[in-house]
Structure formats: structure tokens, C-alpha cells
Write a structure and sequence with these properties.
The complex is a heterodimer of chains A (288) and B (234). By secondary structure, chain A is mostly helical. Chain A has 10 helices and 2 strands. Chain A has a domain at 35-234. A two-stranded antiparallel sheet of chain A has the order 1-2.
Chain lengths: 288, 234
């Protein structure tokens, strides 16, 4: 029983570590949807581009890892701003289904571009960090770094949104877009800043994922859907809901995987998702 | 300070204003009165460039607003308290005031102006951390006026500040308007509550179906026969 409990604890703690990363993944998507009202289906592919950027700068150009990561975040932030300016802005008043299709088109575009530039072989940074062993429990070191950085990213976003003028405007514009000009706010500029901020969160996610996973052009598909499901589970556009949902989802995956097999952890998490959708279609903390 | 000459505007094929001309001098308080649907709100929206003019011109301190973008109007010294107050319901009172001071030139005077607003509306200081959506109607109006004052405007546009409020609250709102005028602000106020508003402003224009029908000093209009008959029911 003693042994059993320590491994359950390990599963719970690993779930918390995973939850932090999932929380960061959902934050950017939620922020953009909450403010601009458009779902970026290609959000995970922007993360994929960030991973390739870090790989290209660090492995191919021999930049120091941290410099490559900083540049990776900046590149995806710029990509986010461009995404808004050239893809979203023209369809801002179009039907939601058309907006969705456009961002879906960007998904394939980014996948194809990555394939052309880097091929379909799996790439990695070649950074191998030893696991952290505490007593009989073992934790992946990159995952601990990812958790800490994800929390830092969430905290920094929260500070920006609550303490600065532009952050307050980002929250205000989602409540009443029409009167923003009366405040002296150019709504278009707030949208670009929000998109760049969402992009920089995708870039940060990329830096954390690239420490743990191999990169290939379709890697977005392995965490894009789960990111989207977490946003919906928490209430699409509700950032706090997304954070709560990320930690719940991660526990289902981790603890479910502990009791059965890791694949079953995902099955249980998705069954839970479907059950919640019947009970609260608007998500755990969603309004309406 | 503010002048409108032959302003026409509307929504799509519907024309709401037909060649409206009016003037507000520095230090004055002026009302635009008239029935529902006369175009009063449209008039203020045209000044703030929330809708485009189809003809005519608006000038602020001699400068045409024709080439000024909607979000740049506030920088010319015009602050607009919109119809139905339009506070950000899920921001606190203080965050709503912060939005009013969004302009870079307003930010470094934020503390000073917030003090002024709290001094004017002590209730807002008590409620500073409350979400604006949970305020009472009268408090929301104070918050909306306070938010507009945060930009340090020369001219304050008020759209129906008494709408939807109990009569006793309407009176206190009108007293606030009077106090704001006494503080030296120039005010252009749009109101349906004609009797109340004429007690606090210097002059007024009567707007009917998008045209100015009459203008004059408040006392003069209060005494005029057709206004008494049509709008005051005397």
C-alpha cells in the first residue's frame, strides 16, 4: 500500500506539471478568442513554427539556446501580428465559419512550409536532461522547467492584463468594442497587440515543448486538438476557465494513465470532456 | 469652441440629421432638447465621428474634424459620455476610470484627475473596486461622467444622462451637471427631460426630426408658448 500511494502521488504531481503546460497552451488561444472572437485553428502550428525556429537557430546557426528561444518567442509574436493583419482583419466581419476555414487554411500552409523548409524527418535539439528523482518518485526535468516557465508566462500575462493600460484595454475591448474610440483607443491596434501577445505565448510554449519532444511538421496535430478542447472545456474565451480546465484535464490523463494505461488516460479525459459538454455546453466557467 | 455647420448624417439610407448648425462657446453649457428619435444621439455621434457625415463640417477650436480618426477625437479635447453610459461591466470602477485616461498625455495626470473625480463623486471612491456592472443606475452615470473627465476634456458631451433613472436621481444628476459646468467645463448635453435640463444650462437648441427648430437662452425657451405646450404640458 505504501508503494502504491507513492506512485499515485507521483502521477498526481506529474499531472500538475502537465497541467501547467496545458494551461499555457490554452491561454494564448483563449486570449485571442476572448478579445477578437476568432478561433485560430492553426494555433498549434504556430507553436510548431516556434519549435523549428529554436531548432534552426540553436542547432543549425549555433546560437546559444536561450538566445534562440528568445528569438523564437519574438518570431512567433511577429507571426501572430502578421496573422491578424493579413489573414484575420480582412475576414473580421465575415461569417464565423469562413473565419474558421481561413485559419484552417493557414494550418495547412504552415505545415507545408515547414515540410518544405525542414523535411519530414524528426528533429530535436539534442538536449537531454536527466530525470529528477525524489525518493522513489521520478520527474522529467524538462517538464519541471516547462511547468515553472508556464506559470511565469501565465503570471506575466495576468500582470500585463491587469496592471497596464494596454492590458486593461484588451479586457475592455472584449466587453464593448463599439465605444473604444471614445476612450482614444484604436481597436485595430489593440487587436494586433493581442495577436502578438497570443503569438508570444505560442512562442513560449514552443520553447518548452522543444525541450521535451521531437519536432516534425505535423506535431501541431498532437497537441492542437487537446488545446482547443481545454479552451472549450473551460469556456471558450474565458482565460481563468482555461487554466482550471487544463489542470483538471491533466489529472485525468496522468492519474487515469496511472490506473490503466497512458492511452486510457486520454480516453478517460475525453469521455469527461464529452460528459461536461452535455452538462454545461458553455464550459465550466463559460457565461451565457 | 465647437461649431457644427450644415451637418447631415444618417445610418445607411436613413437620414437622421438635415443640415444642423450649432455652436458652443468656451465656458458655456448648452443643451440639445427634443423628442425621442429627433436625432439627438446621432448629433453627438457625428461630433465624435462614430458615424460619418454626409455633408457639413464639425470644427473644434477652429480645427476641422474631417480628417480626424474616431479614436483621435478625444485628443482634440472632446470627451463623450455615450447613451446608456456604456461602462465596461466586468471592469472595476477604477479600471473604467483608467480607460478614460488611456491617452498617453492623460496617463501622467492619472492620479491627479482620479482625485478630482473622487472629490466630485465621493461615492465612486467608496466603490472603486466594485465591478461597474454591479453599480446602481445613478452610480453608473457618475462613473461614466467620471471616466470622461479622466481625459481632462475641454468639452464634455453628455448623452441623456437622466435616461432610465428615478426622478430623485435625475435631480441629483442635473445638480452634478451644474457642478461640472461650475468647475469650468464646457458642456453640450442632449436631453429628453426638458424641464430639468433647462434649469441647469445657459442655452438650448430644440431638435425635431433632424432639424434645429428653435434656439435661445434657457429661461426664454422655458417661457415660450410652443415649448410649454408641446414638451412641458402646461
Amino acid at each position: 500500500m505504501e508503494i502504491f500511494d507513492i506512485f499515485l502521488l507521483e502521477a498526481v504531481l506529474n499531472g500538475i506539471l502537465l497541467g501547467g503546460l496545458l494551461a499555457l497552451l490554452s491561454l494564448g488561444l483563449n486570449l485571442i478568442f476572448g478579445v477578437i472572437d476568432v478561433v485560430w485553428i492553426c494555433y498549434a502550428e504556430m507553436i510548431m513554427i516556434g519549435m523549428y525556429a529554436v531548432y534552426a537557430l540553436h542547432v543549425q546557426q549555433h546560437w546559444p539556446l536561450l538566445a534562440a528561444m528568445a528569438a523564437g518567442i519574438a518570431i512567433v509574436a511577429l507571426l501572430g501580428a502578421l496573422m491578424h493583419q493579413f489573414v484575420i482583419r480582412p475576414v473580421l466581419s465575415a461569417e464565423p465559419i469562413n473565419q474558421l476555414l481561413v485559419t484552417g487554411g493557414v494550418l495547412f500552409f504552415l505545415q507545408a512550409a515547414a515540410t518544405l523548409a525542414f523535411g519530414i524527418e524528426f528533429k530535436n535539439l539534442g538536449v537531454r536532461l536527466p530525470p529528477v528523482v525524489i525518493g522513489e518518485m521520478s520527474f522529467s526535468f524538462p517538464r519541471i522547467i516547462a511547468f515553472a516557465m508556464a506559470l511565469a508566462g501565465v503570471a506575466a500575462t495576468w500582470l500585463l492584463l491587469t496592471r497596464t493600460y494596454i492590458g486593461t484595454a484588451i479586457r475592455a475591448i472584449s466587453q464593448d468594442r463599439g465605444i473604444m474610440p471614445l476612450m482614444g483607443v484604436n481597436p485595430g491596434r489593440v487587436f494586433v497587440v493581442t495577436s502578438a501577445l497570443g503569438g508570444s505565448l505560442a512562442g513560449l510554449s514552443a520553447c518548452l515543448l522543444v525541450l521535451q519532444y521531437d519536432i516534425h511538421p505535423a506535431i501541431g496535430l498532437s497537441f492542437g486538438p487537446i488545446t482547443f478542447l481545454i479552451c472549450v472545456l473551460g469556456g471558450l474565451g474565458n482565460m481563468l476557465g482555461g487554466l482550471v480546465a487544463a489542470f483538471i484535464f491533466a489529472q485525468f490523463i496522468s492519474v487515469g494513465g496511472f490506473f490503466f494505461a497512458i492511452e486510457w488516460g486520454y480516453v478517460i479525459a475525453f469521455v469527461f470532456f464529452i460528459a461536461v459538454m452535455f452538462w454545461r455546453p458553455q464550459g465550466i466557467l463559460g457565461g451565457k | 469652441m465647437l461649431a457644427l455647420s450644415n451637418v447631415s448624417a444618417g445610418y445607411g439610407s436613413f437620414q437622421a440629421l438635415f443640415g444642423v448648425s450649432l455652436e458652443v462657446k468656451a465656458g458655456e453649457s448648452v443643451a440639445v432638447i427634443g423628442p425621442n428619435g429627433a436625432g439627438k444621439t446621432t448629433l453627438l455621434r457625428a461630433i465624435s465621428k462614430l458615424i460619418v457625415l454626409t455633408a457639413g463640417e464639425v470644427t473644434m477650436e477652429g480645427r476641422s474634424l474631417r480628417r480626424v480618426a474616431p479614436h483621435e477625437v478625444i485628443a482634440t479635447g472632446i470627451a463623450h459620455v455615450p447613451e446608456n453610459r456604456r461602462l465596461f461591466p466586468r471592469l472595476t470602477v477604477e479600471e473604467n476610470l483608467k480607460m478614460g485616461a488611456f491617452l498617453v498625455s492623460s496617463r501622467n495626470r492619472y492620479a491627479e484627475r482620479k482625485k478630482f473625480v473622487f472629490n466630485l463623486f465621493p461615492r465612486m471612491e467608496e466603490r472603486r473596486n466594485q465591478l461597474a456592472g454591479t453599480l446602481s443606475g445613478g452610480e453608473q452615470q457618475m462613473c461614466a461622467i467620471g471616466r470622461a473627465l479622466m481625459s481632462g476634456p475641454k468639452l464634455l458631451l453628455l448623452d441623456e444622462p437622466s435616461a432610465g433613472l428615478a426622478p430623485v436621481i435625475v435631480q441629483s444628476i442635473m445638480q452634478m451637471v451644474k457642478r461640472i459646468c461650475a468647475e469650468g467645463y464646457t458642456v453640450l448635453i442632449v436631453e429628453q427631460n426638458i424641464r430639468q435640463v433647462l434649469k441647469v444650462v445657459d442655452r438650448a437648441y430644440l431638435l425635431e426630426t433632424g432639424r434645429i427648430k428653435k434656439s435661445g437662452a434657457s429661461a426664454e425657451l422655458l417661457a415660450s408658448d410652443d415649448i410649454r405646450k408641446t414638451y412641458l404640458g402646461i
